[in-house]
Amino acid sequence: MNRFVAAAFLGGLGLGLIVGLFWPQGGPPAEQPVTEVPALSAHGSPVVPAKPQIPAPEPEMTSEQCKNTLALLRAAYDDAVDEDKQDEELIKFLGDLVEKAGASSPDGTQMEFPEGLSDTFRAEQFNAHLDELKKQCPKQFPDSATADCAEFPCVIRLTADESSGSWNSKECPQFNDIFGGGTSIYGHGHKGTNGENLHTMQIFPVPNDQQTRDFMKEYEGNLRKRQDVRFNEFLSNTAEERYGSQCDANDREACEALANALKRDEDRRLPALQKACDLGSGSSCNNLAWSRCHDQGICDEQALAAARKATESKPEDGKGAWDTLAYTLCQMGKIAESNAAYRSSCEAGYQKNCGKTCEPKR
Q: What angle do the packed helices 220-248 and 252-261 form, to 10 degrees?
């Protein structure tokens, strides 16, 4: 029964029952008349209010009739309660879908360890296995490798300075013996200082039991988001530890390396770009202006100053610096200057800007 129909039904029956019980001989005693001033309509005529339709009570209600009426009231109440429960179940169902898809927040929802998961993939044994792998496969798992089991799944994190940054579980048979061979890897490589290439990796040994696989499939959207969020945090923290103090000490190359490593963390990347730009890095000035104006839509004097400095510093991609300057000027409404910058970009060898003119997006 619909809850609104149930409410009306409850109201009618309840009133009839109460009237029948207390005034069995024809209803309540007559009230004294009250003189009221009638309301007037827009045309000046009195407005006569409609009389409420009250069900006529039974003159007398037998015990059997009372029981039947109470049974109907109970059924209507139970039906309304069931409908409320259905609403709660629907809300919970939709909430679970949002969580499983990773849409509950920008960072998703931290993952609990599923029931039935082997101890091999839980914190205590996972850390013990990593210590064992460091001894048996030091090339694949150096001493700097760490385990993160703050949430499901446990992952192995490591950095490498080799130019390739490759990692292959087949080169360490013991890894497959312990974890079963299924592996998911997040990786990022960037140019460091002194010509080195720094590679940061997050390795996730995938459980192979069907129950855990089903759980991972059900939470696939959220799991992917959490893996990405966790890796980006690791990458940012690693870069800060490696280059942060050197950048603070006005090492331009370290500031450039820090900015290169923080490409997925704009809040921490832009200050590093600004510092490198201030120290004379034309490419950093170019990247700062482009990130600020194009990516974030903040086309202000700070972005313009960085774009101008990029062209003056003659970065490796000089034609790109002129393109950034032209774009920034255009978005700030400086049409003539923007067109001149596009011509300079063309002359620098940026063919796609030859003949291009300013067309502001805002």
A: 180
